[in-house]
Design goal:
Elements: H1 2-17, H2 29-38, E1 111-113, E2 140-142
Parallel strand pairs: 1-2
Amino acid sequence: MTGTKSALGFALLLMGLATPPCRAADLTAEQVGAILASTAPEKPADLSGKSLENLDLSNLDFKRANLSGTNLYGAKLDGADLSGTNLSGAKLDLAWIMRANFTGADLSNASLFGLVVSSSLDVSPAEAPIFRGANFTGARIIARLNRFDLKGANFTDAKMGADMKNQSMGLMRSDLSGADLSGANFTNADLGRALMRFANLTGANLSGASLTGADLSGADLTGANLTGADLTEADLGSAVLANVYGLNAAKGMSLPQRH
């Protein structure tokens, strides 16, 4: 039942975000493909600031391209290689990213609302995009990222918490349940009411992070840093808390009852 409600919530989010594009795409998908094909590894393609919204860019090789400030609203990036790509300040709201590779991509200050990560309501491991080592510093993220490979990703100052002033369609929040977040950096990130059930947070840096009302039940926090984190009303039931640094000094900390 919980999964159904979560899927319904994201479906409503997609509807709410599906507003008419501000302007037409600056290029066609064919033109984008030609630009990428004509560039050399030592001089990656520069598509910064372009509007590529709603284009089908599936399976294209954007490796190390400059897409800073690019509008990719609703674009289909299925199977695209975006490893090492500069997507700082880019808009990826409602983008289709099944099987896309974002390894080491710079997504700092990007907008990632309602990412389409599966062809069905359930997230399939075979369709999951890869974000290993990606930089989400300062990014605004409300998306399903559950069971994704986010190992070593940087979420410093990322805004992933539910906006409690704008919940007319129900509680919209980031879902990181079951994700591999080992070694990830969440310093000062907003994870208010985020779903992080059974996530692998071993060695993660959560110092100064807001985890108010977050669901961390069953998460593995072995060796994580919670110095200055706000755990008010957070659910830590059955969480693994071995060798956690700064746990006793965390705000609102209430250790789960052991039976």
